[in-house]
Amino acid sequence: MELEVNDSNFDEVVIKSTKPVVVDFWAEWCGPCRMIAPMIEEISKEFEGKAIVAKCDVDSSPGVASRFGIRNIPTVLFFKDGKVADKQVGAVPKASFVAKLNALI
Fold this sequence. Notes:
This protein is of the alpha/beta class. It has a single domain (about 5-100), classed as Glutaredoxin (3-Layer(aba) Sandwich). Helices cover about 35% and strands about 25% of the residues. A five-stranded mixed beta sheet has the order 1-3-2-4-5.
């Protein structure tokens, strides 16, 4: 299951994680965000125990979105050792997300 991250818990959940972390930056009103949401949920189940999958609502957490330069959503950032290791902007097939995550495991 995806974790909800926000301005207050982002560093604790994402930056300090010892596992790779996928963060889906999204908003309720974003159509493409809703398109990839089921894929992100599937990935969270498939990689349970190997990676952390999180969602960050850019409307309720503008600090995190600004910190990482999120200008378009959906944007999915891939973190390893507390640093951004890869990025995917826009709606893409699930295989694209899986390939980027597998490269970090």
